[in-house]
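Weekly sync, protein design subgroup
Attendees: M.S., D.O., the rotation student, P.L. (late)

Item 1: inverse folding check
M.S. brought a backbone from last month's batch and wanted to see whether the design step gives back something sensible before we order anything. D.O. pointed out we never logged the input encoding, so this time it goes straight into the notes. C-alpha cells as presented (186 positions):
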C-alpha cells in the first residue's frame, strides 16, 4: 500500500499531506469587455438577446437602459438602437425624465435582465454555472456601484447579481432533475 501511494514505507506515508479541496483559495473571476473569452458574456454589452416583457432585447444593456423610461418614446428608441453603447448613451441622457422609483427598482431591473439572458442561452448559462462558487467581479474602475470601482472596494452589484443568478439556475437545474427522476419512477 505504501508503494501505491508513492511512499517508501507506511511510516513515510503518515506525513503525506492530502490537500483538502475546501481549503483551496477561491479564485476571483474578473470580466469587463463583451469580447473577452470566456467571461465576456457576463457583460451587459454581450450580444445575447432575449425576450422580456413582450419585446426582444438585443442586449441586457438595452433592457436596463430602456427601463429608466418605461412606456415612453425614449424607451422604445433605446430598445431599437443598434448598439449597447448607444443604448447606454441614450439611457444616461439626463435631459430625459428618469422614472421616480429608479433607485429603488434598478437592482431588480438588472436581475430580471441577467436572469432572462442566461435562461435564454444554454452556452453562456454553462459558462456561468462552470464558475462554481467563485466570486465574479465586474472589473471597471469607473463604476463603484455596478463594478469594483477605482479603489477596488465598489459594491460590484452586477457581479453579485450574476452570482445570485448562478445560484438560482443551479437550484432550478436540481429541482428539474429531481422532478424528472420522480416522473421516471412512476
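Designed sequence read out in the meeting:
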Amino acid at each position: 500500500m505504501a508503494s501505491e501511494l508513492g511512499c517508501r514505507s507506511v511510516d513515510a506515508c503518515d506525513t503525506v499531506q492530502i490537500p483538502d479541496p475546501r481549503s483551496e483559495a477561491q479564485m476571483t473571476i474578473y470580466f469587463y469587455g463583451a469580447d473577452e473569452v470566456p467571461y465576456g458574456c457576463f457583460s451587459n454589452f454581450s450580444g445575447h438577446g432575449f425576450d422580456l416583457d413582450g419585446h426582444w432585447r438585443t442586449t441586457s444593456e438595452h433592457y436596463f437602459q430602456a427601463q429608466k423610461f418605461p412606456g415612453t418614446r425614449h424607451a422604445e428608441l433605446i430598445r431599437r438602437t443598434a448598439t449597447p453603447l448607444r443604448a447606454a448613451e441614450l439611457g444616461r441622457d439626463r435631459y430625459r425624465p428618469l422614472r421616480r422609483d429608479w433607485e429603488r427598482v434598478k437592482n431588480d431591473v438588472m436581475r430580471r435582465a441577467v436572469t432572462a439572458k442566461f435562461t435564454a442561452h444554454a452556452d453562456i448559462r454553462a459558462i456561468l454555472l462552470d464558475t462554481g462558487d467563485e466570486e465574479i467581479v465586474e472589473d471597471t474602475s469607473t463604476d463603484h456601484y455596478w463594478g469594483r470601482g477605482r479603489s477596488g472596494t465598489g459594491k460590484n452589484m452586477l457581479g453579485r447579481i450574476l452570482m445570485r443568478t448562478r445560484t438560482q439556475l443551479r437550484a432550478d437545474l436540481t429541482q428539474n432533475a429531481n422532478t424528472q427522476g420522480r416522473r421516471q419512477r412512476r
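Discussion: Residues 157-185 form the longest helix (29 residues). The helical segments are 10-13, 60-66, 73-80, 84-91, 102-120, 122-129, 157-185.
Action: P.L. to compare against the previous round before Friday.
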